[in-house]
Design goal:
By secondary structure, this protein is of the alpha/beta class. It folds into 2 domains: about 1-30; about 35-255, Rossmann fold (3-Layer(aba) Sandwich). It contains 8 helices and 10 strands.
């Protein structure tokens, strides 16, 4: 009986340590990711982000847009790679995600969104550019503002590129016609002749087909990088450690 009791205590202690370790790892994921910033969009959302100042100024700047249900912290590792390559980096929590859950003083998450609210994520990008120019203008080259998006973030990057010519190039990781954030072939035509890099895995059918169609419509400098496997969005960086550097070099060479 005593042995069972001791064993139970040991088991509880182990579970407690594991839980504590998980908590620490979760907290650790939110540390060491630049300067925490926030700005307000034209339609009332408070957007929270992480800003990494460039090693030399002025520098090209990357605005990073995450996948559905994720947060800006999914970019942390690759953001540091790009920062070390000389880019200023701003990763944001898109409206309704992460810490960006306040609109006009009220709490709201993406799970409550209408199609209209998803489409309006393009305003988060416009707000990010306004913030950079107003608050970090000495850090950045205003003629080299780039947006990198994954999944719905890719769709949002394309929508933003259509309405905001301050965006000089976009990188679309696994965009899709069937996602919550709507895109169309007309948006690619609207984007015009600015550079665009498409990236998708062969086994990610929706993203692969979407990239093929959009690539055919893009009229400027363009490339469609196809990866093996079926990884989606930022998951493509796992096992493809070269990819972040490839993207950074592509932007430097093409713009």
């Amino acid at each position: 009986m005593e042995r069972r009791y001791i064993g139970l205590i040991a088991a509880v202690a182990i579970l407690a340590l594991l839980a504590a370790g998980y908590f620490v790892s979760q907290q650790g994921a939110k540390e060491g990711f630049g300067e925490k910033i926030e700005f307000k969009t034209s339609d009332g959302w408070v957007i929270v982000g992480s800003y990494l100042a460039p090693p030399t100024k002025p520098a090209p700047v990357l605005i990073l847009l995450h996948m559905y249900g994720r947060t800006r912290y999914t970019w942390r590792t690759v953001a540091k790679t790009w920062n070390e390559m000389g880019f200023a980096v701003l990763a944001i929590d898109l409206r309704g995600h992460g810490e960006s859950t306040t609109r006009d003083g009220k709490s709201l998450t993406y799970r409550q969104f209408t199609a209209k609210e998803f489409a309006a994520m393009e305003n988060d990008v416009k707000g990010a550019i306004d913030f950079l120019l107003q608050e970090k203008g000495g850090d950045i080259d205003k003629d080299r503002i780039f947006v990198i998006g994954a999944s719905i973030g890719a769709n949002t990057a394309l929508r933003a590129g259509c309405i905001d010519e301050r965006i000089r190039a976009i990188v679309l990781l696994s965009p899709g016609f069937a996602y919550h954030v709507p895109i169309s072939e007309d948006l690619m035509k609207c984007y015009g002749e600015r550079p665009v890099l498409f990236i998708a895995a062969k086994g990610d059918a929706e993203a692969y087909v979407t990239c093929e169609k959009l690539y055919g419509l893009a009229s400027g400098v363009k490339e469609f990088k196809v990866l093996e496997g079926s990884a989606h969005g930022t998951q493509m960086f796992v096992g493809n450690e070269w990819l972040a550097e490839y993207i950074g070099n592509w932007l430097k060479e093409k713009v």
